[in-house]
Specification:
single chain, 7-stranded mixed beta sheet, globular, Rossmann fold, 9 helices, alpha/beta
Length: 261
């Protein structure tokens, strides 16, 4: 069983390398073909896993520097939109974004979907969300087309099997109003292929090239990107140094802000 799993993982990462190469060459037709088959094992993301991870409610103020910067950046992007904002948070988790929006007095009407029952209960209690406990791939059952001003998926797409990702993007596209914003964040340079364990239940590793190709195919126009580095110590100091020493550290996370084309 372990050998079979290792072989499967090796195939997965080889395919991601191929996708990255095709994306950089702008060979989008060949790129899309690589998504037709699913080489992942059973997706490890379950309700019990995420209920356990979210058993303790957390606040954005005590998170690491990269997480706080990520949420502040997304909040600033959303703040420019006319309020109240019709917001869909896919995989709302600990609701860090909603905490920041509320702190900044940004008015929003929240809808949420998450595999975790605990997350949805809290979003309903704390933000009067219209919430649904379900897989994000079923979200079109619950929401009206062209309804939302903003849809966010913060640390979500790396949990979706590659052969289902374009269905996910298609649903997001259909639920957004014309010109609406789709905002995602996802890890970069995670080194998942070298890890013995997978504590965050990620099913793939993204690169910037792969992300941008997926967005082009899915008819989203990227308007802003931001990369972040997860410094464990001296975060503010090293963040400042990274602007001078541009090639010193690799990015650990990317935010993409896109409009429905």
């Amino acid at each position: 069983m372990s050998t079979d799993k290792n072989v499967s993982n090796h195939i997965n990462f080889q395919i991601e390398n191929t996708r990255d190469s095709l994306a950089k060459k702008n060979k989008l037709s060949e790129f899309a073909v690589t998504y037709k088959r699913d080489f992942t094992n059973n997706n490890p993301n379950t309700q019990s896993l995420w209920d356990n991870k979210f058993s303790k409610e957390e606040k954005i103020e005590v998170q690491d520097g990269m997480t706080k910067d990520k949420i502040k950046f997304i909040t600033n992007c959303i703040s420019a939109i006319n309020q109240p904002i019709k917001l869909l948070d896919i995989g709302i988790g600990q609701a860090f974004l909603e905490q920041e929006l509320k702190k900044n007095n940004i008015k929003f009407q929240l809808s949420a979907i998450d595999i975790s029952k605990l997350s949805i209960k809290r979003s309903e209690k704390n933000y009067k969300a219209i919430g649904f406990v379900d897989d994000s791939l079923n979200m079109d059952k619950y929401f009206k087309p062209k309804y939302f001003d903003v849809i966010v998926a913060i640390e979500v797409i790396e949990h979706i099997s590659p052969n289902k990702i374009f269905s996910f993007y298609k649903m997001v596209h259909s639920l957004l109003r014309e010109g609406g914003l789709f905002i995602i964040s996802t890890p970069l340079n995670e080194g998942l292929r070298h890890m013995k364990d997978n504590p965050s239940a990620h099913v793939r590793e993204y690169t910037q090239s792969i992300l941008k190709a997926e967005f082009r195919i899915s008819k989203f126009k990227i308007v802003r990107t931001k990369t972040l580095i997860a410094f464990k110590n001296y975060y503010s100091l090293k963040k400042g140094l990274s602007k001078i020493l541009k090639n010193r550290w690799e990015a650990n996370n990317i935010i993409i802000v896109a409009r429905k084309a």
